[in-house]
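Hi support team,

I've been running sequence recovery on a batch of backbones for a student project. Most finish fine, but this one hangs at about 90% for roughly twenty minutes before it completes. I'm not sure whether the input is malformed or the queue is just slow. I've pasted the structure tokens below so you can try to reproduce it. Let me know if you need the job ID as well.

Thanks,
M.K.
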């Protein structure tokens, strides 16, 4: 298998052009301390895009989007260039990649899940039924009025997503040779001693336990572990479209 996936092309429009031309103008910060384009750079970008600067609405006014604004030749040129750009995606699959396809995919999915957890900038909504009781929304403190005005997530919102990601990672580590490879062995103690015993003159034999056979398997523990692995794969399928940064 050979996979090459390049970075996203990224949009470069009139506002980005204005910021590049007016490189000496520093970014401003909003009320939350986050950087954003300075007002004069933004106005210049608006002029590059539409040939005019829209008047800011007064208190109580709203913009009317009924009329299309003029698009300058600069805007149209940059839009044409954007449509020509293509993200580099090259995937070559060898015949042996599908012999154990679940393992082949696991080699890529597990490190991607770990990177996502380490670098994520948000979290989707996770159903209470998919996490332990102490992480459910019903176990979180009731939202204050101030919290309700800012967002509508409870104190366990991000913890639930971390837990779900950990369960996905656990499942794939048990599959593709990660930290939990050969996990079945931990549930068996002792030694195996099987021998073949001849049972008739035709040469028919049967496998029987030898005198040194001491192996004992914790079938309940093994089943519980396998159930957790399967649940991790279920969560991966359910929240597949939530795997974003």
């Amino acid at each position: 298998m050979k996979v090459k996936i390049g970075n996203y092309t990224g949009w470069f429009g009139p506002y980005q052009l204005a910021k590049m031309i007016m490189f000496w103008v520093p970014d401003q910060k909003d009320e939350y301390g986050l950087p954003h384009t300075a007002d004069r750079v933004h106005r210049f970008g608006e002029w590059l895009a539409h040939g005019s600067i829209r008047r800011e609405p007064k208190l109580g006014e709203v913009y009317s989007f009924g009329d299309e604004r003029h698009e300058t030749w600069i805007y149209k040129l940059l839009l044409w260039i954007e449509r020509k750009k293509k993200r580099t995606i090259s995937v070559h699959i060898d015949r042996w990649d599908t012999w154990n396809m679940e393992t082949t995919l696991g080699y890529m999915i597990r490190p991607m899940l770990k990177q996502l957890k380490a670098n994520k900038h948000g979290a989707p909504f996770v159903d209470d039924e998919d996490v332990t009781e102490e992480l459910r929304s019903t176990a979180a403190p009731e939202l204050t009025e101030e919290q309700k005005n800012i967002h509508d997530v409870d104190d366990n919102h991000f913890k639930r997503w971390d837990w779900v990601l950990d369960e996905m990672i656990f499942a794939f580590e048990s599959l593709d040779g990660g930290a939990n490879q050969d996990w079945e062995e931990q549930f068996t103690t002792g030694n195996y001693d099987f021998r073949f015993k001849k049972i008739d003159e035709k040469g028919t034999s049967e496998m029987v336990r030898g005198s040194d056979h001491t192996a004992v398997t914790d079938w309940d523990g093994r089943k519980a572990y396998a159930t957790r692995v399967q649940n991790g794969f279920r969560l991966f399928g359910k929240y597949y479209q939530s795997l974003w940064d």
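--
Follow-up from support: It reproduced on our side and the slowdown came from queue contention, not your input. The longest helix spans residues 219-238. No action needed from you.
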